[in-house]
Amino acid sequence: MKIAEEKTGGGILLPTTAQTKPQGGEVVAVGEGKSIGKNKVDISVKTGTQVVYSKYAGTEVEFNGSNHLILKEDDIVGILETDDVKDLKPLNDRVLIKVAEAEVKTAGGLLLTEASKEKPSIGTVIAAGPGPLDEEGNRKPLSVSPGNTVLFSKYAGNDFKGSDGSDYIALRASDVMAVLS
């Protein structure tokens, strides 16, 4: 489990309330999988894999002097092998969306401050997971695919900032309200 940043890049110390909680880490152990009907389904991640997980997921424990996080497989958003979120490989029913740019001025021409800009709920699907499991342990395909422009629920998912400054969101396919193209 990664640790929270205690100071800014400029060296300013952050109070614990302002520190951003990490959302990624390395898998150090996995369970045996699960049985669905008569089928045994293996866990989607392996030991040593770098993963991204939901912000408030899991239980923090200290084991052998190190902090660890116990997660359910459903709490794992995806696999991230690089430091850039655009390379995220979503798991199960998750999709990664590049969020459209927010409007910088009103229809009347007034410039908007960063705080007054409305968070866009439209974006382009960058990557999609393999789909959820059905009652027999088979994958059900998702209704969205990379390249689709979608409308998504405003308060769903996990927000990320890409290395290029673009905003991304990883959410469940059920939080996609419409495929626009």
UniProtKB/TrEMBL annotation:
Belongs to the GroES chaperonin family. Keywords: Chaperone. GO terms for molecular function: ATP binding; metal ion binding; protein folding chaperone; protein-folding chaperone binding; unfolded protein binding. The lineage of its organism: Eukaryota, Viridiplantae, Streptophyta, Embryophyta, Tracheophyta. The keyword Transferase does not apply. The keyword Chaperone applies. This is 20 kDa chaperonin, chloroplastic. It comes from Davidia involucrata. CDD domains: cpn10.
